[in-house]
Amino acid sequence: MSSRPVAIVMGSQTDWDTMRHAVDVLAELEVGTDVRIVSAHRTPQRLYDFAHGAVDAGFSVIIAGAGGAAHLPGMIASMTRLPVLGVPVQSAALSGMDSLLSIVQMPAGIPVGTLAIGKAGATNAGLMAAAILANQDAALAARLDGWRAIRTAAVTERPEGAEG
Ligand SMILES: Nc1c(C(=O)O)ncn1[C@@H]1O[C@H](COP(=O)(O)O)[C@@H](O)[C@H]1O
C-alpha cells in the first residue's frame, strides 16, 4: 500500500476548516493523506488530471469535500473506479442543504458515498476511508478498533447533573 493511500480534495481553501477533520482523524489512525484544492468549476484541468491519475498515483480512497453547487465528488467519481466519499460543506446561503443534495443524488452507475454535512461528515469520511483500508491491513484494523473502544468508554451511562 502507498504511504499516502487517501487523497483528500476540496473545492476551495474555505473548505479546509471542515475537511481538516478528515485529515486529523486519519492522522490519529496513522493513515497517510495527500491534501489538495481541486475544483470542477475553477480548476477543471486539475480535476481531470487528478481523477484520471488517482489509481496510478497509488491512492486507494478519495475523500472530496465541497459546498454549494458541489459537483466535485461526482465529477471525480465519473473519472475513477476508486471509492469516492463526498462531504457536503456547510454553505452560508442554504446551510449545506445545497451541498448535500448536489452530492447525494448521483445517477446509478457512478456512486459517491455521501456523508453528513460539515465536521461530522468529514470525520466520518476519514473513519470510513480507514475502515475500507482496514479490510486489507490488520494493524490498521486493530488501531481502528482501539480508536472506537476509547470513544465508547468515554460515554458515561448517566448524564452529569442528573439525579437518581
Ligand atoms: N462546490 C465547489 C466546487 C466544485 O464542486 O468543483 N469548487 C468550488 N466549490 C465550492 O465553492 C464554495 C465557495 O468557495 P469560495 O469560498 O472559495 O468562494 C466552497 O465551499 C467550494 O467547495
Automatic annotation (TrEMBL):
Pfam families listed in its UniProt record: AIRC (PF00731)
The entry assigns this protein to a family as follows: Belongs to the AIR carboxylase family. Class I subfamily.
Q: What is the protein's known function? A: Catalyzes the conversion of N5-carboxyaminoimidazole ribonucleotide (N5-CAIR) to 4-carboxy-5-aminoimidazole ribonucleotide (CAIR).
* UniProt GO molecular function: 5-(carboxyamino)imidazole ribonucleotide mutase activity; lyase activity
Top-level EC class as recorded in UniProt: isomerase
Which residues take part in binding substrate?
12, 15, 42
Q: Might you give the EC number(s) for this enzyme? A: 5.4.99.18
Kindly give the Gene3D superfamilies that the UniProt entry links to this protein.
3.40.50.1970
Q: Which reaction does it catalyse?
A: 5-carboxyamino-1-(5-phospho-D-ribosyl)imidazole + H(+) = 5-amino-1-(5-phospho-D-ribosyl)imidazole-4-carboxylate
Gene source species: Sphingomonas lacunae
Question: What does the record give as its pathway?
Answer: Purine metabolism; IMP biosynthesis via de novo pathway; 5-amino-1-(5-phospho-D-ribosyl)imidazole-4-carboxylate from 5-amino-1-(5-phospho-D-ribosyl)imidazole (N5-CAIR route): step 2/2
Record keywords: Isomerase, Lyase, Purine biosynthesis
Where in the numbering of this chain does the PurE domain appear? 4-155
Its GO biological process annotations read: 'de novo' IMP biosynthetic process
Does the entry feature the keyword Isomerase, yes or no? yes
Spell out the protein name for this chain.
N5-carboxyaminoimidazole ribonucleotide mutase
- This chain is encoded by the gene named purE
Keyword Isomerase included in the entry's annotation: yes
